[in-house]
Amino acid sequence: MFKKLCSAVLIAVLALSLTACSSLPEGAKKPAMQISSVRFSGDEAGFDINFILQHNSLTPLEVQEIIIDVSVNGRPAAHYEESPSSLLIPSGSEISLSRNVKANLVGEISRRSLVNPMINANGNAVVKVIFDSSEDNASFNPVATYQGIISHAE
Question: What pTM was computed for the model?
Answer without folding.
Answer: 0.82
